[in-house]
């Protein structure tokens, strides 16, 4: 049997029917099989002509087509199902009487379509009828049903697109492009159905998608502007790092910051909206140049540092060799070791590991010298133990000096103790000797203070001056006593009080000079 004929637009979509259509022609009791053979390719062509923009969208459209597909009378599900149903169809064909084909002179019509006497199928568009094709080898009902199924396929695709718009998640711009393609297909489509209503639905959908596309574009622009600002902030941080003085940079921290900035850049590229090509390239060039500047400064810094460390290492190695050569001198090598220690401090850093290793050897050389001194000090301390006890005994004996009233006898006693003190000899360690010397010195200072007072008291000149002052004060006191008596006789209390005050002062002076 030949495939159904349509107008120019329809004829380009219809493909030859599968081979089982010929069987359906022999079995007129199975007319739907012929219709299925003609309808199935048309649906596939329509779906392929407007495939969704992504695989997920294609799956959604396919699922919706399968769920909303018409009941038996549409395309056969698979070759296996057709093979299984073939015996049953053959048995039914043998038992059922063959139906008579409809007469071409009997027109058939529905709400949106009709089939005239010549087999031409038309669709109603307002008050006008438009021919959409012919179905000469089937009944008028089959012809009308075929073109109605083509309309159902278009309507299904429009409903699926509307559902995707309601569910969200898809780009409004992509959906608008698909809706525009569907609009072109629906306009003047060779189908039978409410094309005006379908066009109205598409117009409303496209209006909604146009507004959503504008909002989506504005949001995208805002997101791009924010992404540019974030990317620029990353670049500025790296540029600020590149502008710093290499000598003042903590390179370990700076390297960490640079790596973190690069990782942030990569993460931003993955998560943020794509930047305009020119803007993105300009920012990347700035980032790359700043990072290269930092890397060059870091390499130069560490190259110079390596050279400095090498010079310090060589200098400290020479100092170390000199220090180790002092081991044979023992304690006498300590002054030279101290001088080498000053040179060591001035040599600079040679790197932590190298410095630690060299310093361990240098310190060991010094420990050997100071160890010799420590051994001598230990021997001297052991030798000084009886001397310490002897001086402590002399200190106990010297305590009676303070209790001796006669200054001359006290001096004789202390001089004998000091003579024996010197005969004891030096004491080690030095701090113990200094402590004992301080105690005997305090006793001597106390005695010297007593001697000065005694000397002042017994000095002839001092005595003469004291006697003259005593005489003058005694005369003044006698005179004041007479003045007090005269003031009392006259009743002059003011003069009496002034004389008494002067008298008290003279008596205190007299007492002070020992009169």
Q: Could you characterize the architecture of this molecule?
A:
Residues 459-497 form a coiled coil. Residues 1-135 are annotated as: Disordered. Keywords: Coiled coil. Strands 1-2-3-4 form a four-stranded antiparallel β-sheet. The model is unreliable at 1-105 (pLDDT under 50). Helix 8 runs antiparallel to helix 9 (251-271) and helix 10 (277-325) runs antiparallel to helix 11. It is elongated, with a radius of gyration of 62 Å. Among the domains are: 8-193, no CATH class; 380-458; 461-512. The N and C termini lie far apart (167 Å). It has 16 helices and four strands. The chain has 515 residues and is mainly alpha-helical.
Write the layout of secondary structure elements.
Elements: H1 8-13, H2 20-26, H3 31-49, H4 55-68, H5 79-95, E1 108-109, E2 113-115, E3 120-125, E4 128-134, H6 140-167, H7 172-186, H8 195-243, H9 251-271, H10 277-325, H11 334-346, H12 352-398, H13 407-424, H14 430-458, H15 460-490, H16 493-512
Pfam family, one: DUF349
Keywords: Coiled coil
Biased composition (Low complexity): 49-64, 71-111
What descriptive keywords fit this protein?
4-stranded antiparallel β-sheet, DUF349 domain-containing protein, elongated, 16 helices, DUF349, mainly alpha
Beta strand count: 4
Number of helices: 16
Distance between the termini: 167 Å
Content of β-strand = under 5%
Organism: Microbacterium stercoris
Region (Disordered): 1-135
Keywords: Coiled coil
InterPro entries: DUF349
């Amino acid at each position: 049997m030949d495939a159904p004929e349509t107008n120019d637009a329809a004829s380009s979509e219809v493909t030859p029917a599968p081979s089982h259509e010929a069987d359906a022609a022999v079995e007129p009791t199975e007319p739907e099989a012929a219709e299925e053979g003609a309808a199935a390719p048309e649906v596939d062509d329509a779906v392929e002509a407007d495939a969704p923009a992504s695989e997920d969208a294609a799956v959604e459209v396919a699922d919706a087509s399968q769920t909303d597909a018409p009941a038996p009378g549409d395309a056969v599900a698979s070759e296996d199902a057709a093979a299984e149903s073939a015996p049953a169809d053959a048995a039914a064909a043998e038992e059922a009487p063959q139906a008579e084909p409809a007469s071409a002179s009997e027109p058939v019509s529905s709400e949106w379509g009709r089939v005239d006497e010549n087999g031409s199928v038309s669709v109603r568009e307002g008050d006008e009828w438009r021919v959409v094709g012919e179905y000469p080898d089937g009944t008028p009902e089959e012809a009308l049903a075929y073109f109605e199924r083509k309309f159902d396929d278009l309507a299904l695709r429009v409903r699926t697109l509307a559902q995707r718009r309601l569910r969200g998640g898809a780009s409004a711009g992509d959906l608008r492009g698909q809706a525009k393609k569907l609009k072109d297909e629906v306009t003047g489509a060779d189908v039978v159905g409410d094309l005006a209503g379908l066009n109205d639905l598409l117009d409303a959908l496209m209006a909604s998608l146009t507004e959503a596309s504008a909002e989506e574009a504005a949001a995208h622009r805002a997101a791009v502007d924010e992404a540019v600002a974030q990317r620029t902030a990353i670049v500025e941080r790296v540029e600020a790092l590149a502008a710093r003085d290499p000598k003042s940079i903590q390179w370990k921290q700076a390297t960490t910051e640079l790596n973190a900035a690069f990782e942030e850049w990569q993460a931003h590229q993955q998560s943020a909206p794509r930047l305009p090509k020119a803007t993105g390239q300009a920012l990347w060039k700035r980032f790359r140049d700043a990072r290269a500047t930092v890397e060059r400064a870091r390499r130069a810094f560490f190259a110079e540092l390596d050279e400095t460390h090498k010079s310090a290492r060589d200098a400290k190695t020479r100092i170390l060799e000199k220090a180790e050569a002092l081991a044979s001198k023992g304690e006498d090598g300590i002054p030279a070791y101290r001088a080498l220690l000053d040179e060591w401090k001035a040599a600079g850093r040679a790197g932590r590991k190298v410095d630690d290793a060299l310093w361990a050897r240098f310190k060991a050389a010094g420990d050997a010298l100071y160890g010799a001194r420590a051994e001598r000090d230990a021997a001297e301390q052991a030798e000084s133990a009886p001397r310490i006890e002897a001086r402590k005994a002399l200190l106990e004996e010297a305590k009676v000096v303070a209790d001796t009233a006669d200054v001359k006898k006290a001096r004789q006693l202390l001089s004998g103790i000091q003579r024996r003190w010197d005969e004891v000899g030096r004491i080690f360690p030095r701090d113990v000797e200094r402590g004992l010397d301080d105690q005997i010195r305090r006793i001597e200072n106390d005695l010297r203070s007593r001697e000065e007072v005694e000397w002042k008291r017994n000095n002839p000149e001092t005595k003469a001056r004291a006697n003259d002052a005593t005489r003058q004060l005694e005369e003044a006191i006698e005179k004041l006593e007479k003045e007090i008596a005269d003031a009392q006789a006259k009743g002059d209390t003011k003069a009496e009080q002034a004389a008494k005050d002067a008298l008290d002062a003279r008596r205190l002076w007299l007492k002070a000079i020992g009169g």
